[in-house]
TrEMBL record:
Residue ranges of PPR repeats: 137-171, 212-246
Natural source organism: Diabrotica balteata (Banded cucumber beetle)
Entry protein name: Pentatricopeptide repeat-containing protein
Region of interest (Disordered), residue spans: 325-365
GO MF annotation, one: tRNA binding
InterPro entries, alphabetized: PPR_rpt, TPR-like_helical_dom_sf
GO BP, one annotated term: tRNA 3'-end processing
CC terms in the record's Gene Ontology section: mitochondrial matrix
Biased composition (Low complexity): 344-365
Length: 551
């Protein structure tokens, strides 16, 4: 419709060389006006028509129409999404505002090191995507996934993983490692963590992804901590079938899996250790510390099945006739322990034999009468009754006792640390002699006890009502250059059996500028009630009032 007036105008411009005034009015409120002199070749100006007065009056009349009901707002309402969309197209970020991937990664790493996980996530979700409009790479996402996995933000980690898939980013080995680590550290490992780990494992199989050794280790960690020990052991069998070399990291994650099973974890740990010996894997001190955790926290489980397991470990001794003691000491004669899949078959088969394991006298027992299932040639000594193996000190005895365990650490080329001796303190017998032997061993290995070790020693002695020996630990604390802290006075309060002991401890706390709290007064009140000393009870109640401690 525009072409005919415009062509007519151009034709007249070619014919006329003086002045022209042409007006072309269109029904769509556009008007072509030429109000001045145009020379040859000049184009007219296109302007927009304004509504006339009659149109304005019509609109006013329309607003006051009697058929219009209510107080409906006449102005156009702005939708929030429309405002955001308009802002997105109008306010574009400057090119100088956008950073490189390395600089974004450095910002995220710095926040992660400061444990500001939420702020690190906001760098991607707010700054990069909304403000700077930069597409994150999978490296950026892997950084966030690793941080979420370490602190147990399982749900957020999988949300970021789904965002990666929506953006078409490549899923790498590091991505799977971070996700399984998030499952392992989940606040709900037996439910949410296990379900997510199982589904992620199925996704890897569907995609045909071949895990590397790091992926296998973190999968063992995830399924072990989430309570699925059969899956953890089957993953080790899968590593062996694929000829992936087992390292001490794999053994450590298996021991973590054993710790999660409080009923039969110690029995699993014995078989895991035999696999370590069979594969000639050199353990680290971290391996020995995990083994001590199993000794302290886990039981043997069913006695008959445990007997079968121990017989399996020591079965090579039955095949030795007229053995050479020197060869046994050097460990030249060895029968390989069972594979990992035999762990589950051994668990399901139990015989009707007696609950007492009796080992006949043999040259091995002449070498060392103490039981030691950690040695290259494991042995049980003379006689051991498995029905009595219920306490940590009994389980430690199966591993050679405190002395034998430390000798095994030394023979494997490792050096114990303070954590080793702290865990041994929970596993040795409740006697002063055993504790003195442990302190002597610490001096032998040049390990200085810390304040936490002494606090545990005070608590251990007070729990067996050896209050005088507990007070003697204060001398060791001062001798090693430490100052008692609030926890020290808290464990000392366990031994305050009389009112005089309570008065003395309160005086020492005031001299050390410490104030009483609910836990310390609660420990004293327990002793007062146990001793049925009403005067002692009333004194503690008065202390609560004078010290403004909530009752």
């Amino acid at each position: 419709m525009f072409r005919t007036p415009i062509l007519r105008c151009i034709k007249q411009l070619h014919l006329l060389e003086n002045t022209i005034k042409t007006t072309v009015v269109h029904t769509s409120s556009f008007q072509l006006q030429t109000t001045s002199l145009y020379k040859h070749g000049e184009k007219p100006e296109l302007t927009e028509n304004k509504p006339s007065n009659s149109e304005h009056n019509f609109l006013v009349k329309l607003k006051s129409d009697p058929d219009t009901f209510g107080t409906q707002q006449q102005e156009d309402t702005l939708v929030e999404d429309d405002v955001k969309e308009e802002k997105y197209f109008t306010e574009k970020p400057l090119r100088s505002q956008k950073l490189s991937t390395k600089r974004y990664a450095d910002i995220i790493k710095d926040l992660i090191n400061k444990r500001k996980i939420k702020e690190a996530i906001d760098v991607v979700e707010v700054r990069m995507l909304k403000e700077d409009r930069v597409k994150p790479e999978n490296y950026i996402y892997n950084l966030l996934l690793g941080a979420c996995g370490r602190v147990g933000y399982t749900k957020k980690a999988f949300m970021l993983y789904n965002d990666m898939k929506k953006r078409g980013l490549k899923i790498t080995a590091g991505t799977y490692t971070a996700l399984f680590n998030a499952c392992a550290n989940s606040p709900w490992p037996l439910t949410d963590g296990l379900n997510r780990a199982t589904k992620l494992r199925e996704i890897m199989i569907e995609k045909g992804y071949q895990p590397n050794d790091t992926n296998y280790n973190v999968m063992i960690k995830a399924f072990g901590r989430c309570g699925d020990l059969p899956m953890a052991f089957s993953l080790v069998d899968e590593m062996i079938s694929k000829k992936i070399r087992l390292r001490d990291d794999t053994i450590n994650f298996l021991l973590q899996s054993c710790i999660s099973d409080k009923e039969v974890g110690f029995r699993h740990a014995l078989l895991v250790w035999r696999k370590l010996v069979d594969k000639n894997i050199k353990p680290s001190i971290y391996t020995f510390n995990l083994l001590l955790r199993c000794v302290r926290d886990c039981n043997l489980g069913d006695v008959e099945t445990t007997k079968d397991v121990i017989d399996t470990i020591c079965k090579h001794r039955k095949m030795i006739e007229a053995p050479n003691i020197k060869q046994l000491e050097e460990g030249n004669t060895r029968i390989p322990p069972p594979p990992f899949q035999d762990i589950q078959t051994t668990e399901s088969t139990s015989s009707n034999q007696s609950q007492t394991v009796q080992v006949q006298n043999s040259p091995v027992s002449t070498v060392n009468s103490r039981p030691n299932l950690l040695a290259k040639i494991p042995h049980l000594g003379n006689i051991i009754s498995l029905t009595e193996v219920k306490e940590p000190e009994h389980r430690l005895l199966l591993l050679g006792g405190c002395r034998g365990f430390l000798e095994e650490i030394e023979n494997r080329g490792c050096s114990p640390d303070i954590k080793t001796f702290t865990q041994l303190l929970d596993c040795i017998p409740d006697t002063v002699a055993a504790e003195q032997e442990l302190l002597i061993a610490m001096r032998k290995f040049n390990i200085k006890p810390d304040l936490d070790f002494f606090n545990m020693l005070i608590k251990k002695r007070n729990m067996r009502s050896d209050n005088n020996a507990a007070k003697d630990v204060l001398k060791l604390i001062k001798k090693n250059g430490y100052r008692p802290d609030l926890i020290t006075y808290g464990v000392l309060a366990i031994g305050c059996k009389t009112e005089d002991d309570c008065v003395q401890l309160v005086s020492e706390m005031k001299d050390a500028c410490y104030t009483l709290n609910t836990e310390i007064l609660g420990a004293m009140l327990y002793q007062a009630c146990y001793q049925m000393n009403i005067t002692y009870v009333m004194y503690i109640m008065d202390l609560c009032s004078t010290e403004n401690v909530p009752q």
